[in-house]
Design goal:
The protein has 56 residues and is mostly helical. The protein contains 3 helices and no strands. Keywords: Membrane, Transmembrane, Transmembrane helix.
């Protein structure tokens, strides 16, 4: 017999998060998107910096 929790564990994190806290999910999604965007910008700047100074 499969437990209800085992089926719930296969769902994506966003769906699981929406079921837990429907009021804070939007705020958490916005905050997560800002953090991911900042990480991508830092990574891109690091790649450009290393790319320019690698040949010298």
């Amino acid at each position: 017999m499969v437990r209800p929790g085992a089926q719930l564990a296969r769902l994506p994190g966003a769906v699981l998060l929406a079921h837990r806290a429907p009021r804070r999910s939007l705020w958490r999604q916005v905050l997560l998107s800002i953090v991911v965007t900042n990480l991508l910008l830092v990574f891109l700047a690091l790649v450009i910096y290393l790319g320019r100074h690698a040949g010298t």
